[in-house]
Amino acid sequence: MAKKKIMYECLACGYESPKWLGKCPSCGAWNQMEEKPADIVAAEGKDQINVQTSKQRQEGSALKLDEIEYTQEDRMSTDFQEFDRVLGGGVVEGSLVLIGGDPGIGKSTLLLQVAMQLAQKQKILYVTGEESFSQIKMRAERLELNNDNFYLLADTNLALIAREIQRLEPDMVVIDSIQTMSIPDHTGVAGSVSQVREATATLMRIAKSNRIAIFIVGHVTKEGNIAGPRMLEHMVDTVLYFEGEKHNRFRILRAVKNRFGSTNELGVFEMLDVGLKEVGNPSQLFLEERIPGATGSTVVAALEGTRTILAEVQSLMTPTVYGTAKRTASGIDYQRISLLLAVMEKHCGLLVQNQDAFFKITGGIKLDEPAIDLAIAMSIASSYWNKPTQVDDCYIGEIGLTGEIRRVSQIKERLKETAKLGFKRVFIPMNNYQDLKDVFDIEIVPVKTIQEAVRKVFPR
Question: Which residues are annotated as a binding site for ATP?
Answer without folding.
Answer: 101-108
